[in-house]
Amino acid sequence: MALGAHLPQAVGLAWGLRLRGRPGMVLAYFGDGASSEGDFHEACNLAGVRKAPVVFFCQNNGWAISVPWSLQSGGESLAARGAGYGMPGVRVDGNDLLAVYEVTRQARARALAGEGPTLVEAVTTRLGAHTTADDPTRYTPAGQVEAARARDPIARLRAWLVATRRWDDEADALAEKWCDAEIERAVEEFDATPRPDPALLFDHVYADPPVRLQRQREAFLREREGR
Predict the structure, then answer these.
(1) Catalytic residue among 41, 130, 151, 156
(2) Is 126 one of the catalytic residues?
(3) Mean local confidence (pLDDT), 40-44
C-alpha cells in the first residue's frame, strides 16, 4: 500500500499551473501515517523550492493504523516541519470546523497570491476503527475515544448553530431528507452506469508497454475467457 503517493502529483499539478500562468491552486489531504513516507518529504521539499500553489492538509488523528504519533516522529507536531521546507506550518483544532475553514482559507489565499505552499495540521481523534479488520480497543488507551466524542465536530457545529439560532429540528429533518435523497440518486446513477472493461487497467500507462505488463494483460484475458 502506497501512502502519500498522491502528494508529489499534487505538487506537479500546482507547479504546472504556475508555469502556465493559470489561476488555481491544489489542496491535498492525507493522514499522519502518510507524513512518515518519503513521498511526503519529497513533495514538500519540491513545493517549497518552486513555491508551488499547493496546500498540504494533514488530518492527524494520532494513529497510523495502530502506530501512535509518538513512534512516528520525534517532533512535537507535524506543522513544525513546515519551516524546514520553506513554508508556514499551521496547527489547528481539527474538530473546530470554523477554525479549520479559516486556516484553509488563508492557506488558499497565500497560494493564489503566489506566496507558495502551506502545511496544515488538523489535530483530531479517530472515533472508530481504521478498517473493518482493525480492533482499536487493543491499542487505544481506555476512555480516550469516549472523551473525544464530546468534541465530535458534527455535534459541536450543530450545538453552535442551534445556540446562534441558525439551526433547529425542522432544518435537521430537512437536511436528513435531502441527504437520503442524494444518496438514493447517486446509487441509482451508479447502477445505471455501464461498467468499463477491466482490461482498460493495463492501457494508457505506457507509450510502449513493458513485456511484464503485456504478459499480465494476456494472463488476465486468458483467465477471464476461461470463466
Answers:
(1) 130
(2) yes
(3) 97
Q: 139, 206, 215, 224: which is the annotated catalytic residue?
A: 139
Give the C-alpha distances (Å, rounded to integers) separating 23 from 10, 13, 16, 100, 222. 15, 12, 11, 23, 47
Interacting residues of 51 by C-beta distance below 8 A, sequence separation 6+: 18, 114, 115, 116, 117
pLDDT of residue 118: 98
**Residue keyed to cell 439551526:** 167
Bridge partner residues of 54 (DSSP): 26
Which of the four pLDDT bands, split at 50, 70 and 90, describes residue 142?
A: confident
Model confidence at 2, pLDDT cuts 50, 70, 90, reads confident
Catalytic residue among 18, 81, 110, 126: 126
For residue 95 the three cell numbers come to 474538530
How far is residue 170's CA from residue 173's CA, in Å, rounded to a whole number? Answer: 5
First-to-last CA distance in the chain? 29
Place of cell 497570491: 113
Residue 125 contacts residue 96 (beta carbons within 8 Å): no
At 177-190, the pLDDT tens digits run 999 999 999 999 99
Q: Please list, in sequence order, all residues whose beta carbon lies within 8 angstroms of the beta carbon of residue 162, skipping any fewer than 6 positions away.
A: 168
